[in-house]
Amino acid sequence: MPGNQVSKTEFKAKALEYFRQVEASGEHLIVTDHGRPTLEVRPFRSLDRDPLQVLAGTVVRYEDPTEPIDVEWGAGQ
Q1: Confidence (pLDDT) at 66
Q2: CA atoms lying within 13 Å on the CB side of residue 72
Q3: Could you tell me the domains of the chain?
Q4: How confident is the prediction for the chain on average, in pLDDT?
Q5: pLDDT at residue 1 tops 50
Q6: The overall pTM is greater than 0.70
Q7: Which terminus of the chain, N or C, has fewer Cβ atoms within 10 Å?
Q8: What SS3 string covers the chain?
Q9: Which residues have CB under 8 Å from 26's CB, separation 6+?
């Protein structure tokens, strides 16, 4: 796969060969139309992840959650 780019015409003629190369190498392939990138063929990667990995870094820690905050937010108006 020279340069990881191939024209639609060439891709159509050798699609199975390109699929096998992408699967074996793990690299993506860009399919072009008149020199412009139009499609990307890449190996499938499952989105199944450990829920704790998904949440990592998203929790904010409050030292004293009962302490009043300095923000007016209009409750009770």
Answers
A1: 83
A2: 2
A3: 2-55 (3.40.1620)
A4: 85
A5: no
A6: no
A7: C
A8: CHHHEEEHHHHHHCHHHHHHHHHHHCCCEEEEECCEEEEEECCCCCCCCCHHHHHCCCCCCCCCCCCCCCCCCCCCC
A9: 43
